[in-house]
Design goal:
This protein has seven helices and ten strands. The protein has about 220 residues and is of the alpha/beta class. It has a six-stranded mixed β-sheet with strand order 6-7-8-3-9-10, sandwiched between helices. It has a four-stranded antiparallel β-sheet with strand order 2-1-4-5, covered by helices on one side. The two termini are about 25 Å apart.
């Protein structure tokens, strides 16, 4: 029986607007199992990304019950210990995780240096090859890459930490159709090679169908099917 990676029960998410908290996700019950790609599909503004940011530890404004990788979490408290490494996110805009004024080598090496990893340069080079990039590109700045190349580097940044759960927030929606297909096929290959668990958010049902083992639809902050 596969391990439960994340379990949500009665989870609601709020955003702060001035002095008020506005609930944008209502009473979500979900279970994500090891090794699967789970999809959240729905129109823009339905709450998909808001839910994902809670699972990434980027929004503490939630209520309900949330257990991730056997750790029961508390609203308002940041991720600690192994969870900070085991849960990684790839954003819609790769600039969100790539410092615009740092060469890619520096951005990618910093978290590994903090973790006192060995052979960092070699690990980065191998990760570049894994996603179809020439390792010499680690000497470039983000603006010197195409959109598809930047998204591949953002995937490298997440995978270098060997996460157990990879969160994907509309990872191809800013790319043209041919590059979208390349990135999605790359993610499928990476999942198959490493038994990676993924949670994919998309407004595109075709993307969800192509990628996901299971999926639910969201609308107006609710799971609707």
């Amino acid at each position: 029986m596969s391990q439960v990676i994340a379990e949500l029960a009665g989870l609601s998410v709020s955003h702060r607007h001035g002095y008020e908290l506005r609930t944008v996700v209502h009473d979500v019950d979900l279970t994500i199992n090891q090794g699967e790609c789970f999809g959240l599909v729905g129109p823009s503004g339905c709450g998909k990304s808001s839910l994902l940011w809670v699972l990434a530890g980027l929004n503490g404004q939630w209520t309900g019950n949330l257990t991730m990788l056997s750790q029961k979490l508390t609203p308002g408290k940041p991720f600690r210990g192994s969870l900070r490494r085991d849960v990684q996110m790839v954003f819609q805009d790769p600039y969100a995780s790539l410092h615009p004024k740092h060469r890619l080598r520096r951005t990618l090496a910093e978290p590994l240096t903090i973790l006192k990893e060995q052979d960092i340069e070699q690990k980065i080079a191998e990760a570049f090859r894994q996603v179809g990039l020439d390792p010499s590109m680690m000497n470039r700045y983000p603006h010197q890459l195409s959109g598809g190349q930047r998204q591949r580097v953002a995937i490298v940044r997440a995978l270098l930490l060997k996460p157990k759960l990879l969160l994907l927030d509309e990872p191809t929606s800013a790319l043209d159709m041919s590059v979208q297909a390349e990135i999605l096929n790359l993610l499928n290959d990476l999942k198959a090679a490493s038994d990676l668990t993924m949670l994919l958010v998309s407004h595109d049902a075709d993307v969800i169908d192509h990628m996901c083992d299971r999926a639910v639809h969201m609308d107006k902050g609710h799971i609707v099917g």
